[in-house]
Amino acid sequence: MPELIVNREVVADTFSYLTVEDAVPATGDVIVPLAVWQDQADSLLARGGRTGVWLASDQLAEDLDERVHQADVVAIEFPKFVDGRGFSTAYLLRNRLNYQGELRAIGDILLDQLFYLQRVGFNAFLLPDGKPAAKGLELLEPISVRYQASTDTPSPLFRQLESA
Amino acid sequence: MYVYNDYDQQLVNDRVEQFREQTQRYLAGELEESEFLPLRLQNGLYVQRHAPMLRIAIPYGMLSSLQLRKLADIADEYDRSYGHFSTRQNIQLNWPELERVPDILAELATVQMHAIQTSGNCIRNTTTDQFAGVLADEIVDPRPYCELIRQWSTFHPEFAFLPRKFKIAVNSAESTDRAATRVHDIGVQIIRNNAGELGYRIYAGGGLGRTPVIGQVVSEFVPEKHLLTYLEAIVRVYNQHGRRDNKFKARIKILVRAMGIEKFREKVEAEWAHLKDNDSTLTGNEIKRMQAHFSEPDYADLPATDPAVEQLKADSKGFRNWLERNATAHRVPGYTAITLSLKKTGVAPGDITSKQMRAAADLAERYSFGETRVSHFQNLILADVRVSDLPALWEEAKANGFATPNIGTLTDIICCPGGDFCSLANAKSIPIAEQIQRQFDDLDYVYDLGNLDLNISGCMNACGHHHVGNIGILGVDKKGAEFYQISLGGDSGLDASLGKILGPSFNAEEVPSVIEKIINVYVKERTEEEEFIDTVRRIGIQPFKEQVYA
């Protein structure tokens, strides 16, 4: 079973991940593809259970509108761990759309990427099968110095030192 | 040069421990080969033909004597007592053991060095003019800006898994470009606008490799303080829109070309509008802090010339030759910049032994404030030598194999490691360089030919920058045999251009005589004072073609 980390804790994953072909169940927590969300966000939000939307790697933050703030989760898929588009998507969701809810990395991610993923704004990680969450938690902060600003550090190191 | 503070040191120390732990997991089978690959690449570690290759960063080419001695010790302890300077101002070790790489990184960290982002699909070492700070033709010293870019790009969380590698170069000279900025993913040209304000002309989409392209202007003027946010905007647009389906079409040059420069510029400007004036905008204090690291050394008040030097110039042709080719005029009277040649015939271009590293460290301490620079031409520079020290330095340079007086000439060949070492190569490159150096062993003749860049790459990845050599040689594979394609008319300077392919390729034995035929056409056709590149531009490649394929 894939393990899920949310806010630095291992938790059970209550969500089902739906594709465009899947019918939306009447109850239960679901994460739907962007197209479904764009079509039916209002009815999805009116049903029982929590609702999230997932973006494929070629879908951009700007494809989402104001309704994103009502989503319980936004998930960004990494089809391969070398595909780094999701890092920019996450940054833009947090900093451009000002999305404050749960931002979950799903798909092919490495434990050694959790540090960067966390820095750009992800606070949840669905680890691929076989990747232990306990090890992931150990690897969240391998580098203690951050030169540049990102979602986790709005001010670069040089500003922090100047105002210290 | 830049000196680490506690944060800089902590960062490289953390990196050593991180990589040690990753290597242990890999060796224990907890990380798959494919998963370890990007992790080791972002630490400069390749798996090569004979052994791993470790590429160590030399930020914008600056090396202290202390660092050179440490590199010598590492080459002795962990490798075969030599290293290879690359065309991006880095140094490569060809024989380290994977298990011991964490120890090498720990040794490097003790002298403020690392191998961070020297490979992989991330922002690589920022390069610049090897004569930064010492020549009269520069607008400001580019190195503080390079260091700002280095820090900003180091472990940038958003840009570590770009579509492809990403290289930035900075040039601050007004009339020339010794950093080849137009063939980089981003070229930063420092300029002053009409109001006298400092800023940058930003180029993007240049690059060599399989599809060579000259960069185009994204912005004519970005004010000084907006350097990092503007770079961020460009890299973000690239990260979102660069192709991921084909690694040969993934560089930013392909994106810029596909989108068109106007549309690309529009996207960058739209992104930048959100970032402009945010906290990543440089402060006057931060720029000053960086500049203070590159303040002038303690130059003495000296006469411009020295009688003993003038006498030796009159008496010794060898000394005269060395000064003509290996000395560069300094902006401070009584000083000169000297290039220590690593292009001795019979030695792979850019190779340096541990003994030579120690010798260069000594020379730097004795004659040049303890600092050296590495050029993308794969030579070493002592940037601040007293004119009166030149005779003594010449003797010592000769004794250590550094005095080959061929800088900028046909035999000052830029060359990648090629098929002897690199698993990507289609053909050997080092033996070709040596054959050409042997063919042109008459120094007077080589001098008469004047400035001429001859660049060799062993495959189309173009580490030897063959596209921008006045004469470029590319190793190709023809049904399993090694062949060489020759191009003419490339130039990496302000007036950058890509070479045109002459015609069908040649086998290794033919190459030196083909080069000779090309040179003969130049000698016959040139007008007075015309350099090789000027003649090629004026008469085109047809006359060369006719001779070579006659």
UniProtKB/TrEMBL annotation, chain A:
Domain of life per record: Bacteria
Q: Name one Pfam family in it.
A: DUF934
Name of the protein in question: DUF934 domain-containing protein
UniProtKB/TrEMBL annotation, chain B:
Coiled-coil blocks:
none
Residues of the Nitrite/sulphite reductase 4Fe-4S domain: 119-274, 410-548
State one molecular function term (GO).
metal ion binding
Pfam families from the UniProt entry: NIR_SIR, NIR_SIR_ferr
Keyword presence, Hydrolase? no
Q: Which UniProt keywords apply?
A: 4Fe-4S, Heme, Iron, Iron-sulfur, Metal-binding, Oxidoreductase
Q: Which residues form the Nitrite/Sulfite reductase ferredoxin-like domain?
A: 53-109, 347-399
Has the keyword Oxidoreductase been applied to this entry?
A: yes
| UniProt xrefs under Gene3D superfamilies | 3.90.480.20, Sulfite Reductase Hemoprotein, domain 1, Sulfite Reductase Hemoprotein,Domain 2
Instruction: State the name under which the record lists this protein.
Output: Nitrite/sulfite reductase
In its UniProt entry, the species of origin is given as: Natronospirillum operosum
